[in-house]
Structure formats: C-alpha cells, structure tokens
Design brief:
Elements: H1 9-13, E1 19-23, E2 29-33, E3 40-43, H2 46-67
Antiparallel strand pairs: 1-2, 2-3
Length: 81
C-alpha cells in the first residue's frame, strides 16, 4: 500500500533503528536492523559490518520509498510493559 506522507530518505536514515550485532566466530560479524525485514549485513570486523549495514539501510529505505511501501519506524525503547 502506498504511503501518503512527506517523510523522505533523510528522515528515515536519521531515525534510531534497533541494530542487532553478533559474532559469527571466525567468519566475522553480522548485523541486522530489527524493524526493517531483510536489512542485514556481514563483515570481517564490527566497524566494517556496521558500515555495510548503513549502506544496506539506505538501499532498503530508498527502494521502499520508490515503491511506496510502508516503512516501519523504530520501536520506542522508553516504553516498558
């Protein structure tokens, strides 16, 4: 379903999405943005992995905006249940 808001790539790139980073042992590191399904990256170091993830996030968001897809915003971490 198409979005009907005026939020742009810069808006979404600056949101504090939840990043999960984990070691793949001798194979390096992997990371994902929990709110953006399929937005994952892998690299040899933590820094490299997070850098690659930033590029993957930009691509994910760009494609979603171009296709008019709904884009989830970050989970609110200040709410406890």
């Amino acid at each position: 379903m198409a979005q009907t808001n005026n939020k742009d790539l810069e808006y979404y790139m600056n949101l504090p999405y939840t990043i999960r980073l984990w070691s793949e042992g001798v194979d390096g590191w992997a990371a994902e943005i929990e709110e953006l399904p399929g937005c994952i990256a892998a690299g040899d170091t933590q820094a490299e992995t997070l850098d690659i993830l930033e590029g993957a996030k930009e691509l994910w968001l760009t494609m979603s905006l171009e296709h008019g897809d709904d884009i989830p915003e970050p989970k609110r971490s200040d709410i406890t249940e």
